[in-house]
Amino acid sequence: MAIYREKDIFERRNAANEAKKALLERFKARPADDDPAVLARKAERQAILEARAIREAEKAKLKQERLAREAAERAAREAAEEAARLAAEEIAQAEAKRKEAEENERIARLLADEAARKAKRDARYAARKQRVGRAPPGFTAR
C-alpha cells in the first residue's frame, strides 16, 4: 500500500502557477470574433433564440385562444345557470301564488260558513226572544 505524502508549500505554489499559466494559454488560444467557427456558433445560437421566440409566441397565442374559449364556455354555462335559476324562481312564484289563492279561498269559505252559522244562531235567538216575550196560551199576566 502506498504511503500518503503531503505536498509541501513549494509544490502547491508551483501547481497553482502552472494552472494559471494553462488558463492564460487557453484564453490566448481562443479564436477571434471574426473566426468562421465563432461566427457559425453565433449564427446557430441566434437561430435557436429566434426559434425559441417563435415557439413562445405560438404558445402564448394558443394560451390566449384557450383562455378565450374557456371564458366563452364559462359565460355560456353561467347564462344557462341563470336561465335555469330564473325559470325555477318563476315556478316557485307561480306555486306560491297558487297556494296563496287556495289559502284565500279556504279563508273565504270559512268566513262564509261562520257567517251562515252566525245567521242561523241569530235567527234561533230572535225566535227564542219572540217566544219569551209573549205569554204562553192560557196565562194571564197581573
Structure description:
By secondary structure, this protein is mainly alpha-helical. The protein has one domain. Helices cover 83% and strands 0% of the residues. The protein contains 2 helices and no strands. The N and C termini lie far apart (161 Å). The model has no long low-confidence stretch (mean pLDDT 90).
Give a short overview.
This is DUF6481 family protein. The protein is 83% helix and 0% strand. The protein has helices at 9-28, 36-133.
Q: What labels would you give this structure?
A:
142 residues; single chain; 83% helix; mainly alpha; 2 helices; DUF6481; DUF6481 family protein; rod-shaped
How are the secondary structure elements laid out?
Blueprint: H1 9-28, H2 36-133
- Give the number of DSSP strands: 0
Which structural class should the secondary elements be placed in? mainly alpha
Spell out the helices and strands N to C. HH
Query: What percent of residues are in strands?
Result: under 5%
